[in-house]
Amino acid sequence: MMPKLAEREALLQQAQGLRAKGQVADALAVLARIEAAEPRFSRLHQERGQCHVLRRDAAAAVQSLEEAVRLNPTLPASWDMLAQLYRMCGDAPRADAAARRLAVLRQLPVEIVAASSLHADGDWDKAEAILRDYLRGQGNNAGALRLLARIRLDRDDPAGAERLLRAALDLAPDWHEARLDYAMALLQQQKHQHARDEAVRLLAHGPANRDYRKQYAAACVGLGDHAAVVDIYTGLLAETPPTGPEAAELRLWRANALKAEGRTQDAIAEYRAAIAAGDEGAGGVAWFSLANLKTYRFTDDEIDRMRRAEAGAEIPAMERVYLAFALGKALEDRGDHAAAWRCYERGNALRRRLGRYRPEVAEACVARQAGVLTPDFFAARAGWGLADPAPIFVVGMPRSGSTLIEQILATHPQVEGTHELTEIGRYAAEICGADPDCGLPVEPEALARLTERQARALGERFLTETQVYRRAGRPFFIDKMPNNFWHVGLIHLMLPRATIIDVRRAPMACCVGNLKQLFGTTNQEFAYGIDDVARHYRAYLGRMRHWDAVLPGRVLRVHHEDVVADLEGNVRRLLAHAGLPFDPACLAFHENPRSVRTPSSEQVRRPIDAAAIDQWRAYARWLEPLERALGPALTTYRT
């Protein structure tokens, strides 16, 4: 048990002891202490209800017990007391309903009820231990498997949850709630097609079910089918009250889909509607999404509203982070770089405290891979993999100009743009394991155990699993996942004829671009501190130098500044490396109407702007620590 849980349990036992002695006022005082730290702890509300029963305050007892079962529907004692209190107050219908809930719980195995209650209160260790003991003694039980899977989801283990839910569905194939959890576990692993298939199966049983429709829409987003998503959210909004958290969330999701479709003005209107639908002081994600368009300009009133919201005492930490980054961009656009930098500093500092990134892990990964993936390693495996030239991998640091290169290539009539695919990282994790804090391979030595047959099977698997993203039927397609620079060796083993392009930007511009960018969820957690981003940039250079040494000529390096200075010359070089004929359409990349999901989506819908190259210099007075941390990389990054 975590220390916080142990302290909570000790205080609850103290309150129970005081109540047993008749010291109800003292017991309620202890419960107030628990509530101040954990207001969603259901058993504190149950205990408070029992205290009010002793005080003969039926109304207060009912209120506390109703809150207990709202937070945790698996509390038999609360339902029992509620049934009695409702009946005593003459409310027969509610008394009967509470009695039915109690009867259902009494029919379930005691272990499952206990584990459900512990899970609802966040005591995952105890809940999981009870369930595993129960499954060992009783054999498979669909309910126990599903609950255990939900705990695994809470612990960020969607692969473990998927296995448990598949077993539960084998026992109970028509259990729709378990199938919805299964689809969610698939989605968290970026298995978008499989997740959508499960959502389709659910919708066949409940076409009007809102959770099923939301799940289907989320899978469509992963597959890049944004037009369908816009329609789904439009339908859901038509059935939703115009204000409140759900309306705000649906409008935000619809706006994101509109943005990806290039419908910028419609997206702006929907982001504003999301802000209006939520509570005053909320809407940080929507405010940041407007800023993240890179082309939106905030009004004085909007900036004042964001400032008031960020200063609010009660807003969640991530809400504050979103607002800080949004304000940074708003003030930057007005030329107030000192105030903008203070906002970025606040946002980065808070976001870094919320993350788990450790720069030494990335550096150790570079060292371990260098010791395993040597020239002799690749020479002994020459000719392995699937000799298919279709994939084009665009790798590099985030904010390096990789979306521009993707857009140029995707404008060629033989090349299809997809988006940042996650398959390669998933394969690397399956083979080498993944560090829980940063996702990097922990055992690169495992690559040496791959057989020739397995390497080819991985190449075939990649082409099969990415087929769903290839809708235009073109012979070549792009995977623009920047983090694949870690996995160039694996890509080469799987797909020796695939094109690999490293897009590189000057270190100061690249690192400042990262420090000004808030990435989604747990992506790119190195980007929230000057030392972290500098060390990551240096690790990236080390990784790419290693690939150049062990696989000479395998990766084409493209410098962003060179593309800006000589677009046609570099487009010809890119296409020649990929074995493609020159096509002048690639020079008009900004006219391509394809969906783009990265933060640069609006920028690549406009011609190249050379002024953006030196935008970072506006912050030069605050960047001496970054220069020191980058060290030799400032001058050696082009080698």
Write a concise keyword list for the protein shown above:
Serine Threonine Protein Phosphatase 5, Tetratricopeptide repeat, 3 domains, single chain, Rossmann fold, 32 helices, mainly alpha, 639 residues
Please explain how this structure is put together:
This protein has three domains: 1-107, Serine Threonine Protein Phosphatase 5, Tetratricopeptide repeat (Alpha Horseshoe); 243-354, Tetratricopeptide repeat domain (Serine Threonine Protein Phosphatase 5, Tetratricopeptide repeat), CATH 1.25.40.10; 359-593 and 601-630, Rossmann fold. It has a five-stranded parallel sheet with strand order 2-3-1-4-5, sandwiched between helices. Helix content is 62%, strand content 4%. It has helices at residues 3-20, 24-37, 42-54, 58-71, 76-88, 92-107, 110-120, 124-138, 142-154, 158-171, 176-188, 192-205, 210-223, 226-238, 245-260, 264-277, 284-292, 300-310, 317-333, 337-354, 359-372, 375-379, 402-410, 423-432, 452-465, 488-494, 507-515, 530-550, 560-565, 567-577, 624-630, 633-636, and strands at residues 391-396, 415-417, 476-479, 499-504, 555-559. Helix 1 (3-20) packs parallel to helix 3, helix 8 runs antiparallel to helix 9 (142-154) and helix 13 (210-223) runs antiparallel to helix 14 (226-238). By secondary structure, it is mainly alpha-helical.
